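Hi everyone,

Forwarding the result from last night's run.
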Amino acid sequence: MKVTKYSGELVHYDEQKLINSLRKSGADQAMAETIVKEIESEMYEGISSKRIYKRAYQLLKNISNVHAARYNLRTALLGLGPAGFFFEKFIAKVMKEQGFQTKVSITLNGKCISHEIDVLLLKNDIVSMIECKFHSGQDAKSDVKVPMYILSRFNDLKDKKYDLFSAKRSISKCIIVTNNKFTTDAIQFGECSGLSMLSWDYPQKNGIKDLVDRFRVYPVTCLTTLTKAEKDQLLILDCITIKDLIQHPDYLKTIELSHNRIKNVLKEANQLTN
């Protein structure tokens, strides 16, 4: 059986890969196998991976909202677009969970020109800059032109000192982040040039999906108990993560949810963070 990927490429269907992705969401082996069996009974030659994903998500949601929310993480990141500003704020939240002080959307004058920096970090007296590359489609990859361009910006900034985090500091590290993936050349160039790279699945076992699961810093866009319009309203209110929502549940009153729905949303949110 062949499956059509997001890019249009035909590949062999991999049952174990589907089971593994369901298991990572929290489903047990029996649950994952039951869902896969149901999907396989509906499959046909050339079926899109998007259709398989949607069907798996529906079946998972029928069993557990929390498992479905975790399974939906990559699509949930796309919900932080289309411009990517909310993605930058989300990445700042992920870094804050790891002990960094953060600043978002800062403009600094480099040696030659001014630059708007997506996120600034401080930890152990080291200042790092983060440049985010947001893609609104799952098949898009950040190619080698991205680290080449960002390296030139970093080079224009690194030799000066700025008033950052209540002291005169220089920027000594640069991190490139994408919600999707990097091409092999992009990773090779970035590593060779001393840049740090963070994508959906890179570095191995320490990519965005791993960090989100490890620190339970899920975006509000992954919640299954909210509509897309409601999620967008929360983002505008600067409620970016589920932890933000738990700390400020009144956001749900602000977007005019009923008492019962607020209860259901907070139940899902608390289950995800626990």
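The chain has a mean pLDDT of 96.

Cheers,
N.
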